Amino acid sequence: MVDPRVYQAMTKTVVSHLDPYFFQVVEDCRVLLRQAFGTTNEFTLAMSGTGSAGMQTAIANFVERGSKLAVLANGFFCDRMTEMGKRQGASVVRLEKPWGEAFDEDDVASFLRRERPRVLAFVQAETSTGVYQNSKTICAAAHEVGALVIADCVTSLGTMPVNVDENGIDVAYSCTQKGLSCPPGLSPVTVSPRAMAWLKSRKTTPADWYLDLKLLADYYEGAHRYHHTAPISLFYAMREGLLCIHEEGLQNRWARHKAAHEAFVAGIEAMGLPMLVSPGSRLTSLNTPRVPEGVDDLKVRKSLLAATDMEILGGFGPLAGKVFRVGIMGPLATEEHVLALLAGLEKALAGEGFAPKASGVDAAREIYCAPRLR
Ligand SMILES: *Cc1c(COP(=O)(O)O)cnc(C)c1O
User: How many whole angstroms separate alpha carbon 200 and alpha carbon 213?
Assistant: First the structure.
């Protein structure tokens, strides 16, 4: 859900892509993005494009033809990174896990010592499975073998700890339409000084002109040399979305998402739907309850949408038909919305012949009544 304040900001007068006012807006965005990412990285910007543009930026700038890219593969978006790496001409090696499981940090460390890649790429918040990947040890192990670390933070930014600096992530990217509660169209990217130094010394030119960070630095920083026409209104939107986060406070925002997640899980488990992901590795912004045996998930989703205007998604790949994917983020991560969602789901499931074990709404309400969440 896009915050109403963000829609309002988008109605502001459009100025030119070289207007000093636009660069002021960009500067505000950079300051606010650093806060949200948890970094002091000077090089923090937004690519014109959706989250995949951020992914492509990371791969195009930091993965050279013929170099070795290691990917931690346990979901759909790691596969997309693999594909981009191959197209870039990298030799891609993968450590694989079943969809829905997080990586053990020691396993990753020994994989890295064995493979000694130039770059390690992983997904911090895997939207296809609902898995959150802890990464501090992983990043340290990558640095030990001299590798740069790329992390996909598309669904974690603005909803969960990303902590770029604390974790030691070198290149992180995200998007505007998930945790930032803005329309799609921009992809925030932040780059560590270590990665920036490597980029400056890079001998080959990135094959991708549009997402070339050195050219973009010339446009957004210092010289303001024309590169492309930035989508001005989307920058207004992102600044407002980031301001909403800043005013709420990052910690408060994470806590609000955690409370909504815990209430939802209590409700869904009370109804008799187990979660796919084990408790320590769950995203709080994207929940993946299992579809009960014999129930057609598409029918449930369609009747929920028709009856309540609430849309949830299904699983894909190996999880097709097996899980629901329920995003609870931004302005929707509140008691009111979680209870309404559970009530709607209960009805939609009942319509498909599934009898809930207990009331999901009651179980969720109890979580919200617990003193620590008040
Ligand atoms: C949504 C998503 C992307 C791709 O973003 P688009 O905005 O659809 O291009 C990449 N990685 C993850 C983890 C995502 O959830």
Answer: 10
167-181 pLDDT, tens digit each: 999 999 999 999 999
Q: Which helix (H) or strand (E) holds 238?
A: helix 232-248
Q: In terms of DSSP bridges, do strands 313-314 and 148-152 run parallel, antiparallel, or are they unpaired?
A: unpaired
Give the per-residue pLDDT at 222: 81
Residue whose tokens read 């309850």: 289
Instruction: Assess whether the C-beta atom of 50 lies below 6 angstroms from ligand 1.
Output: yes
Q: Do residues 333 and 195 share a domain?
A: no
CATH number of the domain enclosing 225? 3.40.640.10
pLDDT digits over 193-203, tens only? 999 999 999 99
Q: Helix (H) and strand (E) counts for the chain? A: 14, 12
What does DSSP say about strands 131-132 and 125-126: parallel, antiparallel, or unpaired? Answer: antiparallel
What are the CA-CA distances from residue 374 to residues 2, 78, 110, 150, 283 (Å)? Answer: 25, 37, 43, 37, 21
Cβ(32)–Cβ(256) under 8 Å? Answer: no
Pocket test for ligand 1, best of 59, 175, 211, 316 (most atoms within 8 A of CB): 175
51 C-alpha to center of ligand 1: Å? Answer: 5
- CA 11/CA 232 separation, integer angstroms: 11
Q: Is the pLDDT of residue 102 over 80?
A: yes
Residue 209 lies in a domain: yes
Query: 149 and 259: one domain?
Result: no
User: Is 65 in the same domain as 196?
Assistant: yes
Q: In the structure encoding, which two tokens stand for residue 261, read together?
A: 């997640």
Distance of CA 368 to the CA centre of its chain: 26
Instruction: Report the C-alpha gap between 343 and 106 in whole angstroms.
Output: 42
Range of the domain at 196: 4-248
Q: Which of 282, 280, 294, 286 lies closest to 355 in space, CA to CA? A: 294
- Number of domains within the chain: 2
Query: Which of 217, 248, 279 is at the close of a domain?
Result: 248
